[in-house]
Design a protein that fits this description.
The complex is a heterodimer of chains A (415) and B (322). With 415 residues, chain A is an alpha+beta fold. Chain A contains 18 helices and 14 strands. Chain B is 70% helix and 0% strand. The chains are: A alpha+beta (415), B mainly alpha (322). At the A-B interface, helix 1, helix 3 and helix 17 of A face helix 1, helix 11 and helix 12 of B.
């Protein structure tokens, strides 16, 4: 294992970038190295395929080399290796949880000047500020939305319950539907160790009910609002299938075996592309039944600081084109949910009330991510501790106060 | 009683017989040096290959582990030598915990895998209908990539949809569904089971090969002497396969010691770190938390532990003339 750290440096030398020595002006052939964890994930893959084909048409001297990663965590680990070996890709795609780690290491190039030529600074809303580090914009979001309550209307009708509008109603409805003997679950939530969705789901409950995981630079895990929200979370998770990962969660919900699940707006696109056609009509969306609408900017693009010349120009053009109104609108059309640009759904809302709802929820969403640089720098380690605590909350009878007190102590020691 | 005849060694001749003493020694020495140079020339490509793939990365890992401060890029490692990462490794209570969990995982895997492998090898030694077919089938788990096997076991041991829960429930052995990978009480066992499944064919194969070198005559003699089956095993079978068994145990233990492919996809070291072995911890520190120095130091310590085990195992084998 120790040797593998060093092997990374030996085996990842070179590989991408311009094949010449300088500018892109003379039609010099450039290979844009772009690792992508959505390359095979419908419906995102369709957008990426169309976008990359259009980009190559518009830039005939550039070939985009897409390497597919199975998920964001795997890509984050690959990127860590590549950055460590001083072999960055041309464009970085990653999730918010890893932004600060990479930004703090100086891996990303400030892109304020680049974005100044686009409508991002003026139109994209506050979630874009997630990617500001040391006063500079170092990433641009490609996936941002409010967190949505997805429900199975048929199961609710069979149990004689309405779509919940409060946390208590959600608990009651989930319990009413819950019938594990027949493979029917109330809430389909993750509880497998270290699943990345162990952040989003409990955060929806906590932030939605007025809590915050962090108070500035300090952990806030024992705050009364957090504890109350987690008690609700525990009761809802008591109706969930035990120990599932998020891929299993999606499968169970899309196959019609779960009454509720919480995900971002883009999951509507996954339902359209993956759920059986006879079940799709019963899978619907509603606002989360909390006072505050939680949301997150979860995926971003960045340009590594280590690239230059023609490769840099190609990367800048790639990012600029991805955030253009044309491709943001196409994103909304394909995914069936708003793109980060709120204007992306302007032409769709008249015909699709669900998209209109997603857009409204996204515009009022409060981010579930902390903003303190000290917390963000340690977010991977803090998340690891938090994930363990959330599994314990959802899978054991140990008092929530005790679990969160332990988490508070561990987080304080880390920070 | 079972006697063994000493095997006659190769015929030897007195050194330098029939040649003038000084000249013969010189010409032999010249020939020997020439042969050594030739052998070295033949080995050189392999040595360069090994140096490039093993020695250099190991050197860089040592360099990383001795580089002070926090860094995440290899280019930042110039200048300064410090033992701070080793101090951190040895002063961190988590290291001891990870070592303990690694020991549980290794012993928990090797003991049942070896026992299963031995039993299957003993079974396959006998002639019976379908033996060839069974031999191929037994090897199958060894050929399945660990990550693919992990996916299979993830679904088999799934809390709600898994076949294991359904069977145990039908047999009345559990009251409700068990989340095998999410419960701290069951997660270690749930990662050991697939590792045993993957590992036992290795032992079966090695031990079966060794069993086939044990002459049948010895068993016949033992039977004539009235030895029970257990006595036959302890006096004929085990002495015949002991060398191969020790070698397989050393190799198998090292394989499980550095095992990563099962634990990471199944539990990522959780819940509450109960499946976080040294290998998982090194990976997490390096690639999730970007603590390259600490991860390298832990990796070096882990490598040294493996080396100590190999030396210890080698001495046992040497002491037993294996």
């Amino acid at each position: 294992m120790s040797a593998s750290l060093a092997l990374a440096s030996c085996l990842t030398g070179g590989g991408s970038g311009s094949e010449g020595d300088g500018s892109n002006e003379g039609g010099e052939q450039v290979t844009l190295d772009f690792p992508n964890f959505q390359a095979n994930e419908a419906p995102f893959s369709q957008w990426w395929d169309e976008f990359i084909a259009a980009y190559e048409d518009a830039n005939p001297n550039v070939t985009v080399s897409v390497s597919s990663a199975p998920n964001s965590a795997a890509l984050a680990e690959t990127l860590t290796t590549r950055f460590a070996a001083d072999d960055p890709p041309s464009v970085v795609q990653q999730t918010t949880a890893n932004f600060a780690k990479f930004a703090d290491a100086g891996y990303f190039r400030p892109i304020d000047d680049l974005l100044a030529e686009t409508n991002v600074p003026d139109s994209w809303g506050p979630l874009q500020e997630t990617y500001t580090w040391n006063g500079e914009t170092q990433g641009v979001m490609t996936l941002a939305s409010g967190l949505i309550l997805y429900y199975n209307k048929d199961l609710l009708d069979q149990a004689g319950v309405e779509v919940p509008t409060t946390a208590e109603e959600l608990v009651a409805a989930a319990e009413a539907v819950y019938d594990p003997e027949n493979g029917i679950y109330g809430f389909v939530g993750v509880s497998a160790p270290q699943d990345t969705k162990l952040y989003n789901e409990p955060s929806a409950f906590v932030v939605g009910q007025g809590g915050q995981w962090y108070d500035g630079d300090a952990p806030n895990f024992t705050d009364a609002a957090v504890l109350d929200a987690l008690e609700i979370y525990r009761r809802v998770m008591a109706t969930a299938p035990p120990g599932i990962q998020h891929t299993q969660r999606n499968t169970i919900f899309q196959s019609g075996q779960g009454a509720f699940m919480i995900e971002n707006a883009n999951f509507a696109g996954a339902i359209r592309s993956e759920a059986p056609e006879d079940i799709q009509p019963s899978l619907q969306a509603a606002p989360v039944p909390f006072d505050i609408q939680p949301g997150l900017a979860s995926v971003f693009l960045a340009i590594p600081s280590g690239i230059e010349g023609a490769e840099l120009e190609a990367a800048e053009e790639f990012v600029t084109m991805a955030v253009s109104p044309e491709w943001q609108a196409r994103y909304a059309e394909i995914i069936g949910a708003p793109a980060p640009d709120p204007n992306s759904v302007a032409e769709l809302v008249a015909d699709d009330p669900q998209i209109e709802m997603f857009a409204e929820l996204g515009s009022e969403a409060i981010s579930v991510y902390p903003t303190s640089p000290a917390v963000l720098q340690n977010l991977p380690e803090l998340n690891k501790l938090m994930f363990d605590a959330m599994v314990e909350v959802s899978s054991t009878d140990r008092p929530v106060e005790e679990i969160m007190a332990d988490l508070q102590q561990a987080a304080e020691a880390l920070l | 009683m079972i006697d063994t005849q000493p095997t006659p060694g190769p015929a030897t001749t007195p050194q330098g017989q029939g040649e003038p003493p000084g000249r013969g020694r010189r010409s032999k020495a010249t020939l020997s040096r020439s042969n050594e140079r030739f052998a070295l020339a033949l080995l050189l490509p392999a040595l360069i290959f090994v140096a490039a793939l093993i020695a250099y990365p190991l050197f860089v890992a040592i360099q990383l582990s001795l580089t002070p401060g926090s860094f995440s890029a290899l280019r930042e490692t110039t200048g300064g030598v410090s033992l701070e990462h080793f101090v951190a490794v040895f002063s961190d209570r988590a290291t001891l915990d990870e070592l303990g969990r690694t020991a549980v995982y290794v012993v928990g895997t090797i003991v049942p895998a070896f026992a299963a492998g031995l039993m299957i090898a003993l079974l396959l030694r006998h002639r019976f209908a379908g033996r060839r077919w069974l031999r191929s089938l037994v090897l199958l788990p060894w050929a399945v990539p660990s990550v693919a096997a992990s996916a299979i076991f993830l679904w088999m041991l799934d809390g709600s949809l898994g076949i294991v829960n359904k069977v145990l429930s039908a047999l009345g052995l559990i009251d409700g569904p068990v989340a095998w990978y999410s419960s701290p009480d069951t997660a270690m066992a749930a990662v050991i089971v697939p590792t045993v499944w993957k590992q036992f064919p290795f032992f079966a194969m090695i031990l079966l090969a060794a069993l086939q070198t044990v002459p049948n005559d010895l068993y016949e003699s033992a039977k004539v002497d009235g030895a029970s089956r257990w006595r036959q095993f302890t006096t004929v079978t085990w002495p015949g396969i002991r060398g191969a068994a020790y070698a397989a145990l050393v190799i198998g233990t090292l394989g499980v010691y550095r095992e990563f492919d099962f634990i990471y996809p199944l539990t990522r070291g959780g819940p509450n770190d109960v499946t976080s072995t040294l290998a998982i911890s090194i990976y997490r520190e390096a690639f999730q938390f970007s603590n390259m120095g600490f991860a390298s130091a832990l990796g070096i310590v882990s490598t040294l532990l493996a080396a100590v085990f190999v030396i210890f195992g080698g001495r046992i084998m040497a002491r037993n003339n294996l």
